[in-house]
Structure formats: structure tokens, C-alpha cells
Amino acid sequence: MPVPSPDGRYLLTVGNTPREGTILFLRPIDSLASRPLPGTEGADPGPFWSPDGRWIGFHADGKLKKISPNGGSPQTIASLPLVQDPTWGSRGDIIFRPTNRAPLYRIPESGGSPAQITHLDSARTENSHRYQRFLPDGRRFLFTARCGQRENNALYLASLDTGQAKRLMPINSKAHYIPPREGGPGVLIYYLEGSLVSRVLDLAREEVSGEPVPVYEGVAYNSTSLAAFFSISDDGRVAVIRPAGANQTLLTWHSRTGDLAGTLGPRGTYNQPRISPDGARVVVSSPDPQTGNRDLFVIEVARGTFSRLTTHVANDWYPVWSPDGKQLLFGSDRDGGTRNLTYLKRSLEPGAEESRFPGEQPVDWSRDGRWISFFSESGRNTDLWIAPALPDGKPFPYLATPFRESTARFSPDTRLVAYTSNETGQFEVYVRPFTGGPAPPEGKIQISTGGGDFPVWKKEGGELYFMAGDSTLFAVNTQDFARSPAVPHPSRLFRACEGTMVQPFPLRDASYDPPYDTLAGKRFLINCAAEAPGRFTVLLNWPFAAKR
After folding, report:
1. What radius of gyration do the chain's Cα atoms show?
2. How many other β-carbons are positioned within 10 Å of the β-carbon of residue 344?
3. Smallest Cα–Cα separation from 540: which of 133, 86, 236, 204?
4. Per-domain residue ranges of the chain
5. Which of 10-14, 193-197, 292-296 has the least mean pLDDT?
6. Element of type H or E holding 187
7. What CA–CA distances, in Å, run from 470 to 184, 409, 501?
């Protein structure tokens, strides 16, 4: 989401560049042009403003940093592995969430060690505190408690001085406070049933009053993270809104020439589609409409019917079929959200046994059934690991470098591993031999040359597919890899999802989130955005705020 400056004069965004990856862009509200901020390369999502607008905070390369919107060198505030939902108070404090499922921590803007300031209430099944935002006094702040039982989700008002938190009301999104103007009351803006609504908040009494009043209809929303896609300047005069439906996807079948050959199921919020070995089913990760947690679902290709596979209150995602199509590996944050661990589902029944398996986040299961691949994160880097497909199999590093490697896929004969790496400065697809141990120093073959990700082997062998940064699908003949050092030039197949784009596809990060799969290289299932992404509605001198 673009983030308005406190006075609404600028919009701050995270954008992609071909070689530097992500970088912060600043755009004056009265201009059509955005300018990059050098020194912010590698910025993670979630940049934020100091309350006086003199600084921009961001996280990159394992550090919390700040930079002037006028440019100059960034300054490091602290070394922190991860920073989520940061907010900067008028008295010099920064509050953040250190992992996906965690309470809140505070750190001074001058640096130092973070200190925990909220505590999760297990009796309410709280699994995280998120979307924190300072109030004007710089001591009190709002946050949303996300719970395993969705009916317990609530908005709280807390204080750095007392350490106490007061429950204000049930809520399933973030809330933005707009101070009183022209004698009117202060109000909360939040998401409710597809719209933004307002409700009066009396800070003196720390109470909400009145009924929710709709102020804007049609706002994009993600029930998994409770993310409502809107951002507002401190005075409420500038609001940025992503239209409803912008985060939905549609599973589409394409022929080898790119012709649309049908769809699978209705619009939804799908991720990681994987076709079963027999081609009869597709497994996807999708948020549960009741709890918001991501679960695994199976879709029958012939009838388009959905069946639930997992029911845990944690997020279950990144499914991988066993070679016989009777079991599934998947990733889950069941340890509290600090890591994605691998689990094995021993049958496709919802209540079937799910047991811990070696590795952190699974990527592939070799066709001979002997090996699984996964990746392990270490700071800004990710390494490729492989383990024997046994409950007590000991993982070993297949490829560990100073760069980011991911999406390791075994060839049908298990003799090769295709993967992505940013060792050249951008992500490209490579192939290396696999002999049952770490990658040998010789035999590496670079497949793509202009950027690539998501390698997928043809089931019968002989071809490897990958996707370029503009969502164009390519095929490479792999039949001569063992006999000739010359690599055939990739053949362009088609650009996926013309008119929108593949969803999701952050090439700079190698997202480990395959947006497509294939049946015999003749029919491709691609997860397309239901609408073109990147479009936002910007409201200037918002009438709602002007009435304050």
C-alpha cells in the first residue's frame, strides 16, 4: 500500500527495479512522477513515517533504518531480523512486531535493544498483536489482537506509561484514528463487511460510542492477515484505497500456445496450486472464511468441487504431493509463527494424521520417492536443503551460498535439481547435478538469462519450464544436458494472464510461491489475478475528514 506522509503531501511506496530489487519511491501528491530513494535498496514491505515527516523508516538487510525524504545516506537504528507493522511515536519510540505471530516490542528511535510491551492472552487464543498505531500523545497506541477463534479478534488501546491495554471493541482489521477537527469528535476508521466505516473514539474516556457509519464502499481485504487495504494521512485528508476484489485470483487453464482453455473453480484467494501426479486433483492454500487461517484444499479437476484437507488453527501452506498422490507434505507455522516447519499428511482425509517431518519449508518430493527438498532462511539469505524422505531423515545442505537460492525441483529421473539464485544480481534459473549429497562444484548450468523463477519439470522429462519477470513462460529442451555443454536457447511459450499478471510474482525475492503447474507440458494451470493489480483510489481533501 502507498503510505501518505503525515501531512498528506507525499506518497511512499516500495517498488521493484530490474537489478536492485526493491527500493523506496517517493511521489508528491501533486505530481505524476515518482523518484527512487537511493540507499533504500532491498527495502521490505511496510515503510513508515516519523510523526513530523522528517524521516522515513524502513527495514532492509536485517536492519531497521531511517532516511530523509530529501535523500542522503540512510542511518541504521538497530539490527533486527524482521520488522512488521512499525509505527513511530511523537516522543521518539518505534513499536513493531518481530515475527508473524508475536506480541509487540518497543525500541527508541536512537537505537538500543527492543523491549516487549504487550503479552498474548492464551485464554482468548491470541496469536499475534498487529496493526499498531500511535495516538497523537506519543504514549498511547492502538493495536489489533488476532486470535485463533475469530470471534475474539479485538481492538485495544494501550499505554507505554502504564503497560496496560484496554479492549475497545471487536474488530477484524486495523484501525486509523483521525483527531478532532472544528469541534468534532475524534474518530476511528476501520474495515467492516466490505466497507470502511467510522466510529467515534473519545480519547479522554478511552471509549468508543455510536454505531459504525459507512464512509467508503468496496475495499480489498485479506481475511488471513486481517489486512484491510487502506492507508490514511494523520489528519485524514488523504486516503489511499485498494479496490475490493483486487486481491482475488482465478485458476485458469492455458494451452501451450497461451490460449485460455477454461477455469477451475470460482474466484478466490488461492496460492501455490499443485497438480496431483495423476492430474485428477489440484491442491491449493486458501484462507478459511471463518477463522482467516490458511488451510489446504483439494479441487477435483473434473467437477471443480472443493474438499478441505487441514483444519489446524495455524497457517498451512506450500503443499507438495507424494509421488503416488496419496500423501502431502506442507509447511505450517505451528510453532508460533517463527518458522515454517514441514508436516506430512498421511492421507487426504481432513482428520488424518499430520506428523512433523524433517526440514523447514518443503518444495519438492522426488519422483522415485526417496528425497524431499526444502529451503532454510538465514537472515536475508536462503539455502537449499535436501533430506531423505523418512520421518527420521537427516537434512543436509545441498547448496549454501551468500546468495538467495530457492524453489529446488528434482528432475523426473532425480539426477538434476533446478533452482533459482540471485548470484548475478537478479534471480535466474539454474540446473545442477544431484548425486544424493551436496551439490558438486562442477556441472552448473544457467538456464535463464534475463531473469527467471519457478522452474517446473515436464512430468515425462525432456523439458524444463520457468517464468520471467513479466510473467512470460519459457520452455527449455533438457534432453541433451548430459551429453552437451551447450544449453538450448529458451523458447517463449506465452505471457501468462494477459491483461492482468500472474499472481503472486515478486521476482526479486524468489517468493517460493509457485503461481503455476503443468500437465505433460501441454496444459498449464496458472493462478491469475482476477483484476489488474497496482491500481489504487486516492481521495484528496476527503469530505469525511473535511467535516471534522
Report:
1. 24
2. 20
3. 236
4. 173-246+533-548, 249-529
5. 292-296
6. strand 187-192
7. 49, 22, 8
CA 209 to chain centre: 35
Q: How far, in Å, CA of 424 to CA of 26, rounded?
A: 28
Cα angle value 86/92/97 (rounded, 5°): 20
Number of Cβ within 10 Å of residue 42's Cβ equals 17
Residue 407 cell numbers, joined: 524453489
- Bridge partners (DSSP) of residue 536 are none
Residues 271, 513: contact at Cβ < 8 Å? yes
Please state, for a pLDDT cut of 90, what percent of the chain lies above it. 61
CB atoms within 10 A of CB 79: 11
Buried b (16+ CB within 10 A) or exposed e, 413-448: ebebbbbbbbbeebbbbbbbbbeeebbeeeeebebb
* Distant-in-sequence, close-in-space partners of 435: CB < 8 Å, separation ≥ 6: none
Q: Is the pTM of this model over 0.90?
A: no
Look up residue 92 and give its amino acid. G
Percent residues over pLDDT 70 in the chain: 92
**How many whole angstroms separate alpha carbon 450 and alpha carbon 472?**
11
Most confident of 59-73, 174-188, 244-258, 380-394: 59-73
Is residue 264 helix, strand or coil? Answer: strand
Q: Order of strands, edge to edge, in the sheet holding 175-178?
A: 175-178, 187-192, 195-202, 207-217
DSSP sequence for 65-118: EEE-TT----EEEEE-S--EEEEE-TTSEEEEESSSS---EEEETT----EE--
Alpha-carbon span 126 to 288, nearest angstrom: 17
Reported as a single tens digit per residue, the pLDDT across 319-376 is 999 999 999 999 988 765 556 789 999 998 877 889 998 888 899 999 999 999 998 8
Q: What is the dihedral of CA 53, 57, 58, 64, to 10 degrees?
A: 170
CA atoms within 13 A on the CB side of 394: 2
Mean pLDDT across 271-289: 91
- The values of phi and psi at residue 149, to 5°, are -95, 110
Amino acid at 184: G
For residue 56, give the nearest of 98, 4, 100 by alpha carbon. Answer: 4
Separation of alpha carbons 248 and 37, rounded Å: 31
- Residue 130 neighbours by CB under 8 Å, 6+ apart: 84, 85, 97, 143, 144, 146, 174, 225, 226
The whole-angstrom separation of Cα 259 and Cα 531 is: 18
pLDDT of 134-181, one tens digit each? 999 999 999 999 987 889 999 999 999 999 999 999 999 999 999 987
CA distance 425 to 451: 10
Side-by-side strand order, sheet with 126-134: 126-134, 140-147, 154-159, 165-170
Q: What is the pLDDT of residues 24-80, one digit of tens each?
A: 999 999 998 999 999 999 898 899 999 999 999 999 988 999 999 999 999 999 999
Between 2.102.10.10, 1.10.3860.10, 2.120.10.30, 2.40.50.140, what CATH number should domain 249-529 receive?
2.120.10.30
516-526 per-position pLDDT tens digit = 999 888 899 99
CA dist., res. 388 & res. 404, Å (int): 23
Count of other CB atoms within 10 angstroms of residue 523: 16
